[in-house]
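User: Teach me something about this protein's shape.
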Amino acid sequence: MDGNTNDHSKVSDSNSEINETAETIKDIKKSFGQTASFIKKNYPWIILSLLLIFGFYLRIYHSDYPVVGYHNWKETHYLTEARNYARDGFFQDGFLVPHWD
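Assistant: First, the predicted structure itself:
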């Protein structure tokens, strides 16, 4: 008779494990549904964010390379003016007169 009781407790333990697993699966499906609805709702913003990150990556790529070409020198010229304005102020050489290195 004692062996019969152990069998029943094993069966009830396995049933409780099955119920816990079923609850876990339901929770996973619910969270997946919430994630899917979030993605559907914010799809344009997600695409825009990815495009901006990719554009920033393309812009920053090789930013430590030396300056070569007319357009890059022009950019460097204006950046040195901006840096000098930030460092020395607008009135070192006169009102808004640029100062180069």
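Now, about its shape. The chain has a mean pLDDT of 77. The radius of gyration is 33 Å. If you'd like, I can walk through any region in more detail.
User: That's plenty for now, thanks!
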